[in-house]
Amino acid sequence: MSIRHLDRLFRPRSVALIGASRQPRSVGEVVARNLFSGGFAGPVMPVNPHETSIQSTLAYSSVAELPCVPDLAVIATPPATVPGLVAELGARGTKAAIVLSAGFGEGGEAGRALQQQILDAAKPHLLRVLGPNCLGVMVPAIGLNATFAHVPAKRGDLAFVGQSGAVVTSVLDWTSARGIGFSHLVSLGNMADVDFGDMLDYLAADADTRAILLYVEAVTHARKFMSAARAAARAKPVVVIKAGRSAAGARAASSHTGALAGTDAVYDAAFRRAGMLRVYELDEIFAAVETLASGLEPKGDRLAIVSNGGGLGVLATDRIELEKGRLAELSPETIQRLDAALPRTWSRGNPIDIIGDAGPERYKAAINALLEEPNADGILVINCPTAIADGVAAARAVVEALAGRHAPVVTSWVGESTAAEARRCLAEARIPTFATPEQAVRAFMHLVRYRRSQEMLIQVPPSVPELFAVNEPAARAVIAPALAEGRGWLTEPEAKSVLRAYGVPTVETVAVATPEEAGAAAARIGRPVALKILSPDITHKTDVGGVELNLASPERVRATAERMLERVRAERPDARIDGFTVQEMAPVREAVELIVGVVEDALFGPVVLFGHGGVAVEVIDDKSLGLPPLNLHLAREMMSRTRVAALLKGYRGRPPADLDAIAVTLMKVAQLVIDFPEVIELDINPLLALPSGVLALDARIKVAEPALPGTQRLAIRPYPKRLEKEGRLPDGRAFLLRPIRPEDEPLIQAMLEKSTAEDLRLRFFTPLKRLSPQLAARLTQIDYDREMAFVAEREGEILGAVRISADPDNIEAEYAVFVRSDMKGKGLGYLLMQEMIAYAKSRGIQAVTGKVLRENTTMLQMATELGFVRRRDSEDPNIVEVRVELQPAA
After folding, report:
1. ∠476-482-483 over CA atoms, to 5°?
2. In the chain, fewer beta carbons within 10 Å around the N or the C end?
3. In degrees, to the nearest 5, what angle opens at C-alpha 59 toward C-alphas 54 and 65?
4. Which pLDDT score, from 0 to 100, does residue 248 have?
């Protein structure tokens, strides 16, 4: 389920309160008071067998006695009574219930069993349950206050959704004093049924909601959450605060990757991938929304700081570094402009100290100079109160300097009584203003991070299929025997064989059984070698003295192997030792040691890790995480979030590393875990980043029988390659029918360029020459979980495309189809529609609908031939709505 019947929860026509009470300060009494005093226009029906009236309204002794079927039931009765009440309400036709009562999933095994009974009672009637153990719901626009909160919410356009009732009431109290209003305020409680994914889907389509704010303790159903979050973030800002960030929540793991990939870091990767903005404090969540509402879009994170006080500039500088932004480097031209406008004693650098006596003209001159600075992505203007300069006049100068410009400028007028008027002046001009420089810097970085996350949603990756080929049978030939033998970890040579099957270069490694064989292998290699212990029980070989490097002769290798064997047996007498591995020493002079890995998260499934590698990898703790599947843009973005990224660009005469090779390696590893759910952990450490390529020196792979088959464990559904197949036109010409890929954007644009203006107008309902980047991304970067688009490709060109977009409940989908103008009349459109209808049936979709311009008679005729029926209630007389039923309604 997803948004089905949520309209009954948030737009009910009638409400029943089961457990209404007259006992002061009881939950039933407070909820009744809130329901009756909130201004709700429909009937509110209290149910209590022991009371004649509640809030001067006739009370009913049972659900059966209610005079009408309530759209929404609010339940505040003992836990044991709730499943029966839900069953009774569902049988009467109620479609939504809020369970305020506690003592369920949070109360141990018995409570979880009781919570399941609620779901079992609701399921036959498709009744949606919010809670249990929740505060309730407020929808101020319709006067609905079905909570036991102490104050009502003001009406506004922000939706706040949280699990904790205590946090919701705290937010309510804080915002009421500041005049912040809500479209919805929702406490999810235990999320037995309605969860974050459902709320994101519902609120994304809600016209009264400008932005969605989430307080998250934990997510259920990761793929559903990611699908809903990505869709919502395309429609409006989604800002999230996540509780439980401490390292104590990190999962214990035996590999470097597992130790580095803590639970909070995985959530962070998920939020970023979904296009949401993460913040870390409750007051920050509302400040972030207002900052985003300014519509400012800095192109990068380089900030220029203007201040009339050096100390405040230093505070802002500290904060920009803490927030992982950068100070802008002023160009000589900008310094020259500032020299001409500022006193000789100005700082001549960034931060730009314009001296304590700075008046409005000095502020205006500094801003005008910085607006022309190509190295600055944003400007922070700071003012501290002085007796010799008017802060309000300076604020007005800022407003004048920015008049008619939509420049990324944030301000901080520090102080209270003397700064209030200046901040009011700036706010009226819709220039973001803050009480402290730190808050202003944080706001600037909110804009930066939000823009980056949105760019990741619309960036079109280059075509990559030809960048690497995989040999699945070769990898399976290594993994299958290990599973059959019940081994968890592959040996180092086995792990490297799997990596080579996916195109990851590895150093040649020879496995031997004895010190004598190790010496002989070194003689055959003929160059300095590395010697490592080979044991299925020893993961970190360095910790037990199981690694020796730069052994120049066979004799030294043999002697070192003998000593290593004694040492390791003494350190780990319990370990099975199969022998040694001998490998040629790799070129490390110009290399940077990296780590690339995968760890299986209990919620989000496999997560790819990238960072600074080597023996001290945990101590350095420089890493970033990403959810598969990856493309080049996503892989490069992962790399950019680490400190080692600066080393990879080259320094002090050292050449830069091959960044593309590193990014492609991340993609290969992501593809490996997509293809093999048996791979639950993987380490390549170190992966040498060289000026020309990469080289895996050491590798570990852990395998196990997968808990979920195929790609079901992935938080984001990958490209469904299994749907690729050959198609044939009626004249016998073949083409490749496949799902659309993000890198198809240039091919889609080329298809449109080869089509007539009239055909484009009939498809898009408006004159169109070329897709905007946003629309191109929306059409090619689809969520395969709830959308599908097939393209007909031949000889590197797309001839036509068809798509459906299903509602979150997978009940109904809307189609669109387009065929290149020179391919019309050849049967391609009909074939594409047949394929899409077959796919929709396989997904269990009940009906497919479409909107066709009335003048598009060709499309209307084809729809009729395919079984579509024209609807006569279309709102637009120029548009015909068509519909085909695929299977009976559930």
Report:
1. 85
2. C
3. 160
4. 46
